[in-house]
Amino acid sequence: MPFAGFGIGGSFDKDDMGTAVCWVCENLPKDKPRHLLGIGAVEDIFTGIENGADTFDCVAPTREARNGSLYTSSGRINISNAQYKKDFTPIEKGCDCYTCQHFTRAYLDHLFRAKEMQAGTLASIHNLYFFVNLVKKIRQSILDENFTEFKKVFLEKFKNG
In the prediction, which pLDDT does 1 show? Predict the structure, then answer.
């Protein structure tokens, strides 16, 4: 086929997504990128990759950031919850994103409460960094031939804190 790559999308039921993506990818050329449209849930990134998708796009990391929902390796947090009002730690310890390197949870909580535009920007920077870093780690786990174990450990911590 004379296409540079392929987009895979549609209205997948969560339970059927892996099967559908696998079937589609098995029937597409292996030498062309397969892009899975609108996938933003952490679990769906793993499902897409293990079934043959190469790239993804979704508005979820920035949309959720604008509403104060931040991704961490221990799950999502809502920065506007009262517990973060006096929490002077980064969103996630060990995160190298600009937001975590320069601002605290308490400051982001303040920005959201004050309805400052910078709140959504800083939260988006963090969430996008989280997803890019996650995909880098997944890529490395594939190269190291331990994707299945990485997925199990990561999702257990993500779901259970």
Answer: 63
d(CA 43, CA 155): 7
Do residue 103 and residue 153 come from a single domain? yes
Does 7 or 147 have the greater pLDDT score?
A: 147
Look at the block and give the residue holding tokens 């919850």: 81
Same domain? 5 vs 37: yes
Both tokens of residue 78?
């809502």
Q: Which of 161, 151, 156, 152 is nearest to 74 (CA)?
A: 161
Strands 69-72 and 75-78: antiparallel
pLDDT at 35: 85
pLDDT of 6 > 90? The answer is no
Are 49 and 17 within one domain?
yes
| Amino acid letter, residue 73 | S
Question: Which DSSP category does 119 fall into?
Answer: H
The torsion angle over the Cα atoms of residues 118, 119, 122 and 124, rounded to 10 degrees, is -120
